Automatic annotation (TrEMBL):
Native source organism of the sequence: Blastochloris tepida
InterPro entries: Homeodomain-like_sf, HTH_AraC, HTH_AraC-typ_CS, PchR_regulatory_protein
GO molecular function: DNA-binding transcription factor activity; sequence-specific DNA binding
Swiss-Prot/TrEMBL keywords: DNA-binding, Transcription, Transcription regulation
HTH araC/xylS-type domain span: 234-332
Transmembrane helix in keyword set: no
Protein name, UniProt field: Transcriptional regulator
Transmembrane segments: none
Pfam family, one: HTH_18
PANTHER family linked: REGULATORY PROTEIN PCHR
Amino acid sequence: MSSRNNGAWGRAVPPADADRTLSVAEMIGSCPNIEKMWAGVDEIGIDEHASFAYGQFWFDAVRPSVFTSGCRFRYLHDIPVSGIYQASIFVGMLTAGRHAANVEGRSIATDRIGVPTLIALGEPMRFTTHFRAGQTCDMSGFFIEAEGLAPLLDDLQLAPLPCCRCGLQFRQFERAERLRTALLDLAVNPYTGALGRLYAEARILAAVFEIATGLDSAQSACPTLSRLRREQAERAQAMLESALADPPTIGQIARDIGVNETTLRRSFKQVFGVTIIDYLRDRRLDVARTLLRENRLTVAQIAYRVGFASPANFATAYRRRFGHPPRAELRAP
């Protein structure tokens, strides 16, 4: 279903058998973070009865102004769109496809599966995007309206988040296992009714705490790299992310970027807190964990898809990282 649902109380990600054709009107009427929406960038009125995607999206109340939220879209047409986002916070993870948009000229696009992502707007802002026929976007997480954040922070005895006072904050948390676990647990909420609401609220509080801690750490850290070295490390990361299953060698990355291997290795570890090899392994395992929890592929298929040489090597690495074998993530049909 696509709704701003005050009765579902933080349910898990809805099953695919509820997917259906969705209209623009449903999205505008149901999404509390979208104030206005137009066709193209020139504020041309959009046909709100037109279909734009097959799938579903949801905003299910957990407490006032706090919702579990997400989408599962397969876009049906090529439609350029613009509009106004309300001041708000979304925290979630992409599980398939790609999310693409620009806010006030800044990209908030991602195709990084299983990486916790924060999109925070301190004030209403103009966005643009382009729905492309056949493209998919599956995300799940939670959404907080501006007035809902302060009570959450009060419950956690935290100061206001610096990212939410004004402007736009778009951040991805590569090394945030507790945050990732909270979001994964939220997506598979096993309860309904009041117990489901309490379960969802606990996971959202845990996620907000991890984000606040991560932002504080980032702000207090003293940058020791030049802008050039940081950009080189980020380019290396992007190259790895675009080819996790069959990545270029570190030497190839260094040559493409125009830096020697030793400098690249050192810069990468300073920026991301982990070596290039460890980063690649962990990201493969993160993607694998998301795929396992979707329950669509076998363990062996997932092992090869994310780039492991054999299911046995994958199982060993998975157990070492998460403390249990990959089969433990599979749900009985």
